[in-house]
Design a protein that fits this description.
single chain, alpha+beta, eight-stranded mixed sheet, four-stranded mixed sheet, binds magnesium ion
Length: 292
């Protein structure tokens, strides 16, 4: 039984969870369906890693809005052949991340699945009223920033698909503290979490704001095990991509995480990448998960 926290008045064990939002806050709600064979493979990742990643997706969305997560809900479909040991590992990964970021598992459901493991995760967060970071605020002249390094998840997938490695566990850390810092300091004009790949996530910001963007390829912080191509188009790094007016001075690190300026918002509707002095159209080539 979950121990009631400050925000969770009643957790697991009653018909509903009873949740309390801080005064003057609005609720943030996000859901993510993680399906075996599409979002993860049990032969490629450990149960702990899969549990962690299923929750990380939702927490990253809360981070992108500048919010603070409160509670998570997990509905799990399990084939009868899945062993208890695997389920225990899944929960270790899921609950490990939850406790690290002060999120309570406040409810959920389980059922037998006839087609692989299915994990449906809902995360509830809160943000002061009217202060959520949206995708839509980018204006021409704003600078574009990313947290951390890009392309690591895509590089690991490349290595798994090519048979170079048998297993690969990557535990992305949702950038909750960075998102909160950006909101509190009123720095970001627009924000999104990098789940589908930089090219695609940037296109979402551009579309929402009715603007274009130019990225400097040499400025993109590529993970040492990855490549520029994977950093531009690979997904699931769960870093934050955000814009800020040119007048705002940003520190090199926020909450201990490196911040890199990679380009600028411009007028128009198209996104370009400048590489070796050439200006190329940046196509939004999103993350295809394990599908070819
Ligand atoms: Mg998102």
């Amino acid at each position: 039984m979950a121990r009631p926290g400050k925000s969770v008045s009643v957790g697991i064990g009653d018909d509903c969870a009873v949740l309390r939002l801080p005064r003057g806050h609005e609720a943030l709600v996000t859901t993510d369906f993680s399906l075996e064979g599409i979002h993860f493979r049990r032969d490629w990742q450990s149960a702990e890693c899969i549990g962690h990643r299923c929750l990380a997706r939702g927490l990253s969305d809360i981070a992108a809005m500048g919010g603070r997560p409160i509670a998570a809900f997990l509905s799990l479909g399990l084939p009868s052949a899945v062993q208890q040991r695997w389920v225990d590992g899944f929960f270790r990964g899921f609950l490990g991340l939850a406790s690290k970021l002060n999120v309570q598992l406040a409810g959920g459901d389980t059922a037998e699945s006839r087609s692989g493991v299915l994990a449906d995760v809902m995360v509830l967060g809160s943000v002061p009223r009217g202060r959520a970071l949206l995708r839509s605020g980018a204006r021409p002249g704003d600078q574009i920033y990313v947290t951390g390094e890009l392309g690591r998840s895509a590089a690991s997938l490349r290595d798994l698909m090519s048979g170079k490695v048998r297993k690969s566990d990557i535990y992305p850390e949702p950038r909750i503290a960075v998102g909160e810092w950006l909101r509190k300091n009123r720095v970001a004009s627009a924000a999104i979490d990098q789940s589908d790949g930089l090219s695609t996530d940037l296109s979402h910001i551009c579309k929402a704001g009715g603007v274009g963007a130019v990225i400097e390829a040499s400025a993109v912080p590529v993970h040492p095990e990855s490549s520029l191509e994977l950093a531009l188009h690979g997904g699931e790094d769960y870093e934050l991509l955000f814009t800020a007016p040119g007048s705002k001075r940003l520190p090199g690190k926020i909450a201990g995480i490196r911040i890199t300026q990679i380009g600028e918002i411009v007028k128009g509707r198209s996104t370009h990448v400048v590489t070796d002095g050439r200006r190329l159209r940046l196509q939004a080539r999103g993350w295809q998960h394990f599908r070819r």
